[in-house]
Amino acid sequence: KVRPGVTIGLVPCAVGGSPIDTWMPGALDPATKTHPWDDTMKRARAALAVGTLKGILWHQGESDCKPDLAPAYETKLHDLVARFREELKAPEVPFLAGQMGKFPDNPWTPQIVTVDQVHQDLPKHIKATAFVPAEGLKHKGDKIHFDSDSYRELGRRCAAAFLKMAPR
Fold it and tell me: Is the pLDDT assigned to residue 2 strictly greater than 70?
């Protein structure tokens, strides 16, 4: 509605339950037997042949909320943003980090708080990034994934954050 005539295409590349370490070139995600980074680059390059990259949505982190992984998450996320931008030849493409589900019936551990703070602080450290809050959204019963209405609301929040930072 904000930009009539513009077609938005999403390139789905999510790999459920994947820790950030599986988002390295050549890395295998054992749970899904996929290569998240490599598969994403193939899909993104195919999309770029017929479109223009305008933003990257990142909604991941739960698998890194462990005592041995959370402390290193910031360095790894900053590296990931740089790799996305370098590989896709888009040095200033907006990168939006969506907040993990924050549900009253599923209290956060200190490690979840650590990873969430990395997402929240991203705009303080890397230009053309945004944090998209998930406050008030509901899960679908599993205490991890949003229900349909909440996913749509998260999408609206991502769009609003993108429009605040993206050039016309």
Answer: yes
Is the CB of residue 70 less than 8 Å from the CB of residue 64? yes
Look up the pTM and report it. Answer: 0.94
Integer Cα distance of 119 and 116 in angstroms: 5
- DSSP characters for the chain? --STT----------TT--GGGGSTT--BTTTTB-HHHHHHHHHHHHHTTS----EEE---GGG-STTTGGGHHHHHHHHHHHHHHHTT-TT--EEEEPPP--TTSPPPHHHHHHHHHHHHHHHHSTTEEEE--TT--BSSSSSSBPHHHHHHHHHHHHHHHHHHS--
Q: Cα angle at 43 between 38 and 46, to 5 degrees?
A: 125
**Each residue of 105-139: pLDDT tens digit?**
999 999 999 999 999 999 999 999 999 999 999 99
